[in-house]
Amino acid sequence: MISPSESTAPPAVTLAAHGLSRRFGSHTAVDGVDLQLRRGEVLGFLGPNGAGKTTTMQMLTGNLAPTAGAVSVCGVDLLEAPVEAKSHIGYLPETPPLYRDMKVGEYLDLVARLHRVPSAKRRAAVDKAQARCGLSDVSRKLIGKLSKGYQQRVGIAQAIVHEPDVIILDEPTVGLDPNQIRDIRALIRELGGTHSIILSTHILPEVEAICDRVQIMHHGKLVYSDTIAALKQFHSGRILLVGLNNPPAMDELAAIPGVTRAEAAGEHLFRVSIAAGADPTTQIVTLAAERQWGLHQIAPAQTNLEDVFVNLTTRDVTDGEKAA
Q1: Using CA atoms, how far apart are residues 10 and 243, in angstroms rounded to an integer?
Q2: What is the CA angle 198-208-13, rounded to 5?
């Protein structure tokens, strides 16, 4: 557990989890997850359906007790002092917790009261949250009469109305049109300047656009945790794009020492996967010349977030790759 700072300055580490696990009967949904979030950081939290993301976020926000492990928020143990710890958290679950028969302003005022925002500051807090989320013009409208996009904005507003240190957003741009998505992304970037944010989404370009760091879950475990820049280099040098005018059979390419797999990537273009520590480039060039394959291109493939995500979540990952 992180000890509370003795100074008046807000803690640099706002959220920390160690060995977080959750079992449902014989099924382990989350297995030994470690997480640390710093102030001013936007963390992309990724994984395929069923990977354990939502269960992890429910434990981080105190909505679900862990089977094992510990969580601290701004130095406060979530299990020992849940009310104090939760006061530092704003949470938008996948389904926003909205009262459809309340007006937007009334609902946000209720949320502010539940978060114990002082009465003298409550009106300003509600106005600020509405302005940030583009809701000022619909403050007096019933939530149930709003479009899905505006209801999503209300969900984000309720997560930030009390100015929490940690903001956890589960699919915040679902149902929004492209202009609204752009506005919400800008809002998340703005909030990330002074708050800590965990963003769970299936929109991978969104993560690349606004996140500083990414964690990927698979089968209840973290299989990757690093910066966006490092992630883009995760598979650098491990896949070659090879252009051949007179290509051999795929089995012949895959039989080259150091090559683990070969597959077509376009007309006369092939993706060649390379074993860790191997470099078959010279061998490929030599064989291409000897066997007249018509080599016209050989270079490392450019890796993006989607490539790495698919690579880590569609097969078993070795311990060496997890540590990469």
Answers
A1: 55
A2: 35
CA atoms within a 13 Å half-sphere pointing along the CA-CB vector of 87: 11
Tokens of 127: 């106005």
Whole-number Å distance between alpha carbons of 47 and 169? 15
Angle made by CA atoms 196, 202, 206, in degrees to the nearest 5 = 60
Beta bridge partners of 43: 198, 213
The predicted pLDDT at position 321 comes to 42
Would you say 169 and 200 are in contact if contact means Cβ atoms under 8 Å apart?
A: yes
Q: If DSSP codes are grouped into helix, strand and coil, which group holds residue 102?
A: coil
pLDDT (tens digit per residue) in 127-182: 999 998 989 999 999 999 998 889 999 999 999 999 999 999 998 887 778 888 88
10 pLDDT band (50/70/90 cuts)? low
* Strand pairing class (89-92; 166-170): parallel
Residue 217 identity: M
Q: What is the DSSP letter of 143?
A: G
All structural domains of the chain, each given as residue ranges with its CATH number in brackets, are 1-88+164-233 (3.40.50.300), 96-161 (no CATH), 239-302 (3.30.70)
Residue 4 DSSP class: P
Query: 0.90 cut: is pTM over it?
Result: no
Contact between 76 and 245 under an 8 Å Cβ cutoff? The reply is no
